[in-house]
Amino acid sequence: MRPVVDEEMLQAALYSLQNEKLVMGESVFKFEEEFARYCGSRYAVSTGSGTAALQIALQSMQIGLEDEVLTTPFSFFATSNAVIHAGAQPRFADVEDNGFNLDPAKVEAKLTSKTRAIIPVHLYGQPSRMDEFRDLAEDKEISLVEDACQAHGAEYGGRRVGSLGDTACFSFYTSKNMTVCGDGGMIVTDNVEVADAARSFRDCGRASKYTMSRIGFTSRLNTVNAAIGRVQLRKLDGWNKTRRRIADLYRRMLEGVSGITLPPAETQKETPVYHLFVVRSENRDQLAAHLERNGVEAAIHYPVPIHLQAPYRAKYGYSEGSFPVSERLAEQVLSLPIHPAITDEDVGTVSRLVTDSARE
Ligand SMILES: Cc1ncc(COP(=O)(O)O)c(C=O)c1O
């Protein structure tokens, strides 16, 4: 990844610092309005991080004590940590056999009378099968919360992520497809009550300046970051287009290389945004070492599934074998370099190194 800070962003930051309130300045509200419009939703409420967005979204939907929230063990651990921060219990279902995202059939088998929400994660920028999750949740008191932290701008069935669940949460951490040049997050929803509650939660639980309606947090997006976010949002579609072109180039160069499994092919229904371009390899560690020796930085997202992280083993008693597909992925996945500034030549070099390693 390579965060972008261009002249336009610097000017926006400078203007904001010189002319606006540092906290809850005008840029924050403009960014929220523009982000909601971009997603095709009514409201957006910014927060201090993606983790806070998930926690506050759940609390704003009155999900907490005694409630269970189903999600994937193959995600960044913030997804399920946020459930615990909200006071609820995370429950996991395994991912698709031939993909990276939560499997609706496996979720269905795990639903209980306590399940109040499902959090599908659009991992690596690949949209989850939201129609099937919608079918599962409909007629039950189960909410759908999209974890869109890695998927700004991805589309499913002609609609952008962020407009596919009851609420959706985004992160603007510096590695994401768009950032605010610092930490930040966003909750997106069509529900005015959820949006109002989230606005209060992120601002100390305020009802007005010196009265409060709930026990809240200080988790606001700084004005200067919102000002930068507004500029980045305008550039997002262009960057995502470039990411898709690079992914296509990788696909063409790596097609048929033995021992390498490419990410799921695109369908008419899904437009991914390739936050990451992730291949699977039986000899992943050997491949990663070969790339590193040749000056290519690859990464593993994620080497340990959430249920096997120490605090989850201790708290919930998980062990190896609980979610076999996720555990296998953790041993096989490798993220190849992808960002809007990478050159075709670089993609060629990386692809040749992957091919050479596969032949060894
Ligand atoms: C899938 C996923 N969920 C949640 C988060 C949490 O976002 P943040 O780091 O902004 O708290 C991230 C990103 O870091 C993420 O990738």
Give a short synopsis of this structure:
This protein is an alpha/beta fold and 360 residues long. The protein has 12 helices and 15 strands. The longest helix is centred in the middle third of the chain and has 32 residues, at 223-254.
Q: Could you characterize what this model shows?
A:
This protein has 360 residues and is α/β, with parallel strands linked by helices. Helices cover 40% and strands 15% of the residues. The chain is built from 12 helices and 15 strands. The protein has helices at 7-19, 26-39, 50-60, 78-85, 104-108, 130-137, 192-201, 223-254, 284-293, 310-316, 324-332, 344-359, and strands at residues 43-47, 68-71, 89-92, 115-119, 143-147, 155-156, 159-160, 167-171, 185-189, 206-208, 211-212, 260-261, 270-271, 277-281, 333-336. Strands 1-9-8-5-4-2-3 form a 7-stranded mixed β-sheet, sandwiched between helices. Strand 2, helix 4 and strand 3 form a beta-alpha-beta unit. It is globular. The model has no long low-confidence stretch (mean pLDDT 97). It binds pyridoxal-5'-phosphate. The site of pyridoxal-5'-phosphate has 15 residues, from helix 3 and helix 4.
